[in-house]
Amino acid sequence: MKSPVHRCRDVERQAACLQTEQPCVPVSQHIPSGMWFIRDACGIVCGVITWMLVFYAEFVVLFVMLLPSKNLTYSLVNGTVFNTLAFLALASHFRAMCTDPGAVPTGNATKEYIESLQLKPGQVVYKCPKCCSIKPAHHCSVCKRCIRKMDHHCPWVNNCVGENNQKFFVLFTMYIALISLHSLVMVVFHFLYCFEDDWTKCSSFSPPATVILLILLCFEALLFLIFTSVMFGTQVHSICTDETGIEQLKKEERRWGKKTKWMNTKAVFGHPFSIFWFVPLTQPGKAHGKAESYQYVV
Asked: What transmembrane ranges does the database entry give (predicted)?
């Protein structure tokens, strides 16, 4: 960790760099203007794997457990609940992946733009040397952009989790945890049902194939239940404290006004509270987040 003196020197050097007469040449955006999508091989593979695992769970739940069941009500209720949660999980994943997380425009660190900010004496602006832009956020080396309220870069959604898509990421972790828990409960009931009845009558597949498919689903559901529950908890804590994961990791000093937990939650999910908080198809209103970095007084 740098000392306060070193940080001040870094700020002075950055501020001096911004006061030069040399024009700032915009850098390449790397992202198509029509749709936000990160061309990262690791992230793309992780995203495809995520969808494949959900489809595998869908296959086992429908064709191994629900369709062969003799109880029509049990099959209809659990099939409706599971498919609804799976749809919401995949929709949340797609929105988290294809939504601009809050990228700062590149190449805006010009003398004219800085003068338009009407800074007070003692205030400085931070410049990202990679984006050549005013830096009110952290720079992501994968997205190659500065992201507002960047929490972390998640390869499973092939995107950063930031100001504009944190709602979708929270919903993604929540719905994945719910379908994982639902799958585990159904697997337990199916095992009990098969032990009491003939294994050849409780599934369309052979008993060995049925056991293998159920064990794999149980392992997948347990793993992702633990993983997404932890991620969901950390995201909720970050929202309530209005402190991103990077800020917690770096133990950065709070330089913005503290708000209530309810206000911080509404800033992410929208105002007022409604059922649309839990729907990934709607974009929350403009969040009133932290102050810009150039408003920090040194």
From this structure: 41-66, 72-91, 168-193, 205-227
Which is higher by pLDDT, 284 or 277? 277
Q: How far is it, in rounded angstroms, from Cα 161 to Cα 147?
A: 9
* Catalytic hit among 24, 132, 140, 154: 154
Q: Tell me: the pLDDT tens digits for 228-270?
A: 999 999 999 989 888 877 777 766 665 555 678 888 888 889 8
Candidates 286, 223, 278; CA nearest to 91 is 278
Prediction pTM value = 0.81
CA-based nearest residue to 246, from 164, 158, 150 = 150
- The pLDDT, as a whole number, for residue 252 is 64
SS3 for 60? Answer: helix
Q: Would you call 154 a catalytic residue per the annotation?
A: yes
Tokens of 209: 């194939």
| Rounded Cα gap, residues 178 and 93, in angstroms | 14
Instruction: Assess whether pLDDT exceeds 70 at residue 76.
Output: yes
As a whole number of angstroms, the distance between CA 247 and CA 253 comes to 8
Whether omega for the bond prior to residue 272 falls within 30 degrees of 0, making it cis, is yes
* Beta-sheet pairing, 159-161 with 152-154: antiparallel
In Å, the largest CA–CA distance within the chain is: 83
pLDDT in tens, 43-55: 999 999 999 999 9
Closest by CA to 37, choosing from 95, 119, 79, is 95
* Interior/surface letters 231-252, b for 16+ CB within 10 angstroms, e for the rest: bbeebbebbeebbbebbeeeee
- N-to-C CA span, the chain: 18
